[in-house]
Automatic annotation (TrEMBL):
<protein>
    <recommendedName>
        <fullName>Phosphate-binding protein</fullName>
    </recommendedName>
</protein>
<dbReference type="GO" id="GO:0005576">
    <property type="term" value="C:extracellular region"/>
</dbReference>
<keyword id="KW-0732">Signal</keyword>
<keyword id="KW-0813">Transport</keyword>
<dbReference type="GO" id="GO:0007155">
    <property type="term" value="P:cell adhesion"/>
</dbReference>
<dbReference type="GO" id="GO:0042301">
    <property type="term" value="F:phosphate ion binding"/>
</dbReference>
<dbReference type="InterPro" id="IPR050811">
    <property type="entry name" value="Phosphate_ABC_transporter"/>
</dbReference>
<feature type="domain" description="PBP">
    <location>
        <begin position="37"/>
        <end position="293"/>
    </location>
</feature>
<dbReference type="Pfam" id="PF12849">
    <property type="entry name" value="PBP_like_2"/>
</dbReference>
<dbReference type="InterPro" id="IPR011862">
    <property type="entry name" value="Phos-bd"/>
</dbReference>
<comment type="function">
    <text>Involved in the system for phosphate transport across the cytoplasmic membrane.</text>
</comment>
<dbReference type="InterPro" id="IPR024370">
    <property type="entry name" value="PBP_domain"/>
</dbReference>
<feature type="signal peptide">
    <location>
        <begin position="1"/>
        <end position="24"/>
    </location>
</feature>
<keyword id="KW-0964">Secreted</keyword>
<keyword id="KW-0592">Phosphate transport</keyword>
<dbReference type="GO" id="GO:0006817">
    <property type="term" value="P:phosphate ion transport"/>
</dbReference>
<dbReference type="GO" id="GO:0042597">
    <property type="term" value="C:periplasmic space"/>
</dbReference>
Length: 320
């Protein structure tokens, strides 16, 4: 399918969540145990999508280590690589993969590429107000609504709710569109997987964070926006998506597990780690906590999807 091809081309994959309980050996290996001598400060610069998760992780970690301080700046994924290159950030949260140019710039500065860890799963949702009667969207319709170039096969621009079969009171005005700003990883990834790297329409109101998109959509009838699913509230509904009207896929945990929902992604932490040398104790322990059973419980608590345990173990070995 077209969307699968674009997801593959961008190395965007969906991890299967493992059902059932963990084996005793794996469970023990994924438990986090408090270590002595952990203190200092961690500075995080990057993804807004990961802002709440970084806050949860930092609060729980600080409860274990009161001598640790955090500074979290959620200014968008594109701000993470420059901060890591210049040394103004310890960790760079990102909701998309690093671009080749970002890896090149980092390597030119430090002599080696950054370490990239997969720490959670997310899905980009198309939100409408919770009482909106729209049943879902085809991928071509998404392209027609948000893109002015329609490289993904849209059949011309869709401006009004009536063009989607909605003619109820409150839905006779043009569709009000909301999305992320250009420094956002969500913006960059949506541009690729939903619009085949086309151009956004100038009617898309860019917001500084996913929370702002959700609030704007929930505030009244007639709005639609794309944002990280983890920011969903009771005031909005995530639309099912699919290749055709007869194959719409709801955004559910099961459909993430089966890779059926089209707009799925990893969430990343990027770190400056010199090959062959250990990380400083504070950084290593914080990352080991995130990649532990306790850290992944925080992922689920924040509305995102934990990564499976075999990948957690692989990421832990990269840190260790």
């Amino acid at each position: 399918m077209r969307i699968k091809q674009f997801i593959a081309s961008c190395n965007v994959a969906v991890l299967l969540l493992v059902s059932g309980s963990l084996g005793a050996e794996t469970t023990h290996e994924l438990e986090y145990e408090r270590q002595p001598g952990v203190a200092g400060k961690i500075t995080s610069v990057g993804s807004d999508t990961l802002a709440n998760l970084m806050t949860f992780w930092s609060q729980e970690f600080k409860a274990l280590y009161p001598q640790v301080g955090f500074q979290i700046q959620a200014s968008g994924s594109s701000t993470a690589p420059p901060a890591l290159i210049e040394g103004t950030a310890t960790i760079g949260p990102m909701s998309r993969e690093l671009k080749p140019s970002e890896i090149r710039d980092f390597t030119r500065k430090h002599g080696y590429p950054p370490l990239v860890l997969k720490v959670a799963m997310d899905a980009i949702a198309i939100f409408v107000e919770r009482r909106n009667p729209l049943q879902g969207l085809t991928l071509n319709q998404v392209d027609s609504i948000f893109s002015q170039t329609q490289f993904c096969g849209g059949d011309g621009p869709i401006n009004k709710w009536s063009e989607l079969g909605i003619d109820a009171n409150g839905y006779r005005a043009p569709i009000r569109l909301y999305g992320r700003n250009s420094v956002s990883g969500t913006y960059g990834l949506f541009k690729i997987i939903a619009m085949c790297d086309g151009d956004f329409r100038n009617t898309v109101n860019e917001q500084p964070g996913s929370a702002s998109v959700v609030l704007s959509v929930a505030s009244g009838k007639g709005a639609m926006g794309y944002a990280a699913y983890g920011y969903k509230t009771a005031g909005v509904r995530a639309l099912p998506l699919g290749e055709t009207k007869d194959s719409l896929v709801p955004l559910t945990i099961d459909n993430v597990r089966s890779e059926s929902y089209p707009f799925s992604r990893f969430l990343y932490l990027v770190i400056n780690k010199k090959p062959g040398e250990p990380l400083p104790t504070l950084e290593r322990e914080f990352l080991r906590y995130i990649l532990s059973e306790q850290g992944q419980e925080q992922v689920a608590r924040d509305g995102y999807f934990p990564i499976r345990e075999d990948m957690l173990l692989r990421q832990r070995r990269l840190v260790d």
